[in-house]
Structures are given as structure tokens and as C-alpha cells.
Amino acid sequence: MKLSLRLGPADLAKYPFLDEASNYIRETTFAIDEFDRPDMDHIVRRAVNRLETEISTGKVYTNLERYEVEILTFIVTLLLVKTLDLEPVTRKYSLLEAIRAEKFLTDDLIREKSFSKKKLLLYKVFEDLFSIKIDASSDTNLLKLRVPDYLIRATKMNEQEWKLINRSVDLGYVYLDADEAVRLIRSELSNLIYKRIKIMRVQSIPTTIRISANKLRKSFAIYSTFNKHYPVRDYPPCIKHALMLMNKGENLPHSARLMLATYMLGIGKHTDEIVNMFHNAPDYNEKITRYQVEHLAGNKGSRIIYSVPSCKKLQAEDLCFATTACEGIYNPIQFGRASKGVVNEH
Amino acid sequence: MSTNTNVLNVSFLQDLFRRYYYNDSNIIPTPRSIEKHEFGYTLFNSAMIRHLSFANRGELIAKLVKEAPLDVFCSNSYYSFPMNSLQTKGWQGADLIFDIDLKDLNTPCASKHSFYVCNACGACYTSSVTLCSSCSESNFSSTSIPCNRCLLSLKTETRRLIEFLKRDLGILDENIEIFFSGNAGYHIHIDDPLFRELDSSSRADIVDYISGNGLLIDSLGVRKFKNGFQVKYPKSGILFGWRKRIAVDLGFNQVQVSKLTKIVESNGGYNGFKEKVTSTARSLGIRIDPQVTRDVHRIFRLASSINGKSSLIKAKVEDLESFNPFNSACMLGDEQVYIKSKVKVKIELKGRIFRIRDTVERLPAFVAAYLISKKLADFVK
């Protein structure tokens, strides 16, 4: 796709993760140790404030400054997170940063009058960053993307409204509002920022940033202890794998969370203990998690007691990591008990 | 069934199957990127052998001729190491496949052409029984000879599925392949790289879409409001997909909100309308086997291979309207053999009608093979 238009400075302020923002830094030949300059102090303070707001309150930092300030703040924030090197902080920051960009992008797509500018934004964020072909309709204000591109992302959402059947689908395209389309890429955007932090190689962290990071470390102390490494005992390999990912603070898909919770309920774990297992999830919310676990236990909502998905279902969902110890079982709940004959798959 | 009878049946069928794979292997298409597929087969009277791989077509055909298996399967998935265990195969993607099976259509005539065969002695019954009168065993298999009405129902369901695939999912005609399963169903293969990379969850979502499962009335614009409901159409409208399907069926449109409001009220409000929409969606949806489409590690009957349950082949359908499985999928030889049929039955194969009596009959091999595979006859000589 050839685009003669370019994003303006105001766009770079909102989307500092775009290549154009990196180019801006390159063009200005700004060196990283310049953050130690006294006139950079407000940038560092702003970055600290942003991290404190996001990590401590779980709320998105909505304050928006001119683009030079925003781009530099973004870089300092990344450096702070990198220096802190606390996995839950990195995950949470990445997610909240994605939600921040999501908010700006939704507003831009709704308010932007120029059709070509709207298309440029879509191209830069969806196609350039994530190879998703997305198009805008000039008359309906709707966005459309191909069914497979939609499914890959929508199936990660837990709410039923994201099921394909509840969408406007025609001739291979799913039609979405701006906010729905942008919500779809939240997880990818979060991963993009997370990876940027992980692959960052900095020769030496500027002194001011190092000092600020050390101060933040004290207020984020809870995150170094909250990284509860849940004891992985003699669980079936599928459960061990899910716990391992959870311990790393990774965002488990809905199907894996369901497997983990129903299994733990099945072996008689208490709701409190199961809720705690999900503590490291970047989107953890105790109230919601508790409701969901109680729902699966049959204590809330439909009152149906959910059973552990079968090995066959887990295989189909790519959640099975069977070893020879799994031979003869057809449900993870049977792991370690007597074998009941091999099931043939075809 | 005596061991001797079983040996004779197996020997007759295996010889016919081997001759088919030897003489007619040219009609077996080479699976795309054959070296990336997992193969499997079942031999007569033996368990399934899986995790096989063939570097080329020649190797595959040689194996089929050598083993003359009862059934042959090939994965819809592409793997880096197809011979490895499931976890280490290196999944690269899978063709999207749908299965329409007669048993899921619940045709009213099913009981009229179903038979129940005792797994111990082979005795055959025309209605369901709990105890075999010959040997007192209680383990039965059911078998069926689909009638024309059943075959038409299968075609109608297949046609409706293809309409969904084209109209909603945008799959092009040239990327859709239809196969008669070889027994009582159709397999619809989608050869579209865009859909190949979808994981099991995405495929499950497609299954729900096609089956009409999980439709929220909120997506039609009907929302719970205080103690009642309110209608406010979604921004993306109700002109496409399931929204349109339900609107057309229940008689409302995007212009008149009042019409939908009346329909909701006439169904007893929010909950009543929800039930109405759920049942309408189920009836408009397609009855596919959900597990077949969802599973990305399944192995499917190989195209043009013989189905051991019928001795018919999994035949490619070029034109669904004119396709007759009892002609196009019947590929075995026509030398005369003697069988002892357990039932009186009329069947039509290769354009000829056969009225079978429950005695020893002299019949072409393809008819004998069909009845023996259905467990409705035993080979004599």
C-alpha cells in the first residue's frame, strides 16, 4: 500500500511505539545519556508519575503532552521498566500502555473527518504493526476485516458478544465499529510493547533513571513478592504447563484458564486458593476471577458444575502436553489414577 | 459369527481392496505437500496404526497395495515432523473441513432402513433389540442402507453449508471441494490459505457460526432494560450474517424498530424472544459434526480410498445435483460371487437394482462387498 500522507506530530505523541516515532529520535540524534541533563528532569518525573499511576492504581495515564515530550516520556518509561526488571510490572505496564493507545486510536477513528487520514491511521497501526488488512467504509463509518484475521483475535476474548455469530458478517468480512476494531488488537499491542522492553539493549542506564528506578522499586516491592510461584506438584502435564505460564505472568487464553480452574475445583482446591493462582495474570481482577471460579463450581449464575475438559478436547485446543505418564487416561482428572484403556483418535 | 466366516469375509474384501489399489490407484489424488501429512490406517481385524509419513505418492500407493487396509486416513494438518508424537510434530496449519453425517440429520425414515447386528454371532435384526435370540449376547452394532430421501437430505444440508461458506465466510467456489464420505455423509474441504492457520478455538467459533449456536439477542438490538427490554439497533446494522437471517425469518427490518418491538412483545418479552431466537437459529443452522471441524490433529479418510464400512470410495463430487454415490463411489469389480444375505433388501448400485433375498445369492463382487461391509451378509464362495 502506497501512502503519500504522513502522520503528524500529534499522532506520534499518541502512538510513540510507531516506527515514525523511533525515526524522530534517530533524526534528532538524541543520545540516551542526555536524559541526565537537568532540562530532562521533568521528562523523567513525568515517566515516574506515569508508571506509578498505572502500576499502583491499574488506571490508564491519560495526560497527553506535545509529541516531543510524549516520545521522550515513553522512552524513559521503557527504560524504567527495563531497569526494574519485575515481570508483573512489565506485563501490567505493557497492557495499560496498549489500553492508552487504544483509547486515543478509537477517538481518532471516530472523530477524524478526512477519509484518507483515517485510512492512514488504520494502515500504520493494523497493517504495518500486525499485518492485519483492515478497510474503512467511507459512508457507514464502519471498519471491515477478513474473517480469519478477526477470529484469530476475537477468540481470545471471553465475552460472548465477540463470537462470530454475534457480528455483522458478509462475503468474508466482519464489520466493526472503531472501538471494537481497536479493542481487538489490545493484546497484540501489549505484546509488542512487552517485547520492545524485553529486547532493549542499553549500554548504561542514565543515572537519573537508575535512581528513579530504585525509588520505584521500593513502592513496587509488593510485585516482587506477589510473583507467587505457585508450587507445580505432580499435576498432569497440561496443568503444569498452564501453571508455568501463569507463574511467568503470561496471559493465558480463556480455554486454558477454564481447564486450570475446573481441574483445581475437581481435585478439591478451595476457591480462595484457585483465585490466588490467577494473581499473576496481567488482567487480574480478584472480584471477576472469584465470580468466574464460583460460577464454574456451580455456586453462581447458571448453577451448573463445570467438569474438566477431556484430553480429546484439550488436544483439539492445543492445550495437551501429554507424556507417557498420561497413557490410558481420557481426562486430566484421572492423571495418576488407574489407566482405563487407550482411546483412538480419527 | 464363526471365525471361519470372518476369515472368508476378510479374505474376500481384502483381495478386492488390494486389486482396487493396484489397478485404480490413478484416481487417488496426491495430497498437497504429501510429505507434511500424517497418515494412518486400520487393517482388517486390527487396531489403527497412526503417525505414518510418505515422501511421495509412489510410497503411499505401494503401502496401500501391500497392506490393502480396511480404512486409510490422512491428516488435514501440515506438520514439520508428521511421524513424531502429537506434541512434537510441529503443527504448520490445517485445511478447514466440515462433515455432514446422516446420523446428525435425524431423518424420519432412518428406522426403516436400519439394521442391528449382533457383534458376537452376526445375527441381524430389523429393529432394536436388547438381547440376541441366537446367542443371548447384548452387544450390537447398527448399520443402515440410506434411502433416496436420506441422500437428498444430505445433499440439501451440504448445499446449505456451501451457501454459508460462500455468502458469509467469503470462500470462493474454486477453494471448496466436496467429497462423498464413502458411507453416509459428505466431507467439505476448504483449500484457502487464509483459513489454514486458524487454531482450534477459531475453528470452534466457525462451527458455532455455521450451526447457529450462541446468538445473543443483544446483537440484534434487543437489550434488557429495567424490568423489560429496549430495542436499539447495533451501529453495524442488521443487514448481514445471522442478524439478517433472523430478521428475514421473523419478519423485521432495519427501518422499522416498532416491528421488532412488537415481535419481542408477542413472544413474551426479553426472555421469550431469546428462546424464540435460539430455536430459530438452531433450525436455520447447519447440522455439522462439531468435533470434526474443531480438531486440528484429526486424520480423515483419504480421498478416493475405500470406506471399510461400505466398500464404496470417498469420491470427489464435481456436481452435487447430479451426483449419485451409488454410481460414482462404487468402484470395485463385478465378477460373480456367492454370498449368504441375512436380510431381504433392495439396493441400487452402478445403476442396477438388486433385490436380495435372505438366502445364498450369486451377485457381482461390488454388491457382495457392500453387503458384507455393512455386516448384512457373509461370503460363501
- The level of helicity of chain B is 25-40%
Contiguous helical run count of chain A: 16
- SSE order of chain A, as H and E? HHHHHHEEHEEHHHHHHHHH
Uncertain runs of chain A = 338-346
N-to-C span of chain B: 17 Å
Q: What's the overall average pLDDT of chain B, rounded? A: 92
Structural class of chain B: alpha+beta
* Number of distinct beta strands of chain B: 20
| Biggest pleated sheet of chain A | 4 strands, antiparallel
**Structural class, judged by helices and strands of chain A?**
mainly alpha
The gross shape of chain A turns out to be: globular
Uncertain parts of chain B: none
* Average pLDDT rating of chain A: 83
- Give a count of the beta strands of chain A, DSSP E runs of length 2 or more: 4
Termini separation of chain A comes to 44 Å
Short description:
The complex is a heterodimer of chains A (346) and B (381). Chain A has 346 residues and is mostly helical.
Tags for this entry?
heterodimer; A: 346 residues; mainly alpha; 4-stranded antiparallel beta sheet; 16 helices; B: 381 residues; alpha+beta; 20 strands; 33% helix; globular
Q: Could you describe the 3D structure shown?
A:
The complex is a heterodimer of chains A (346) and B (381). Chain A has a four-stranded antiparallel sheet. Chain A has helices at residues 9-14, 19-27, 41-57, 67-84, 87-111, 115-130, 147-154, 178-184, 186-199, 207-219, 221-226, 237-247, 254-266, 271-277, 286-296, 311-316, and strands at residues 134-136, 143-146, 168-170, 173-176. Chain A contains 16 helices and four strands. In chain A, helix 4 crosses helix 10 (207-219), helix 5 (87-111) runs antiparallel to helix 8 (178-184) and helix 5 crosses helix 9 (186-199). Residues 338-346 of chain A have low confidence and may be disordered. The radius of gyration of chain A is 23 Å and the shape is globular. Chain A is mostly helical and 346 residues long. Helices cover 54% and strands 4% of the residues of chain A. Chain B is α+β, with helices and mostly antiparallel strands and 381 residues long. In chain B, helix 7 (241-250) packs across helix 9. Chain B starts with a helix and ends with a strand. At the A-B interface, helix 7, strand 3, strand 4 and helix 16 of A face helix 6 and helix 7 of B.
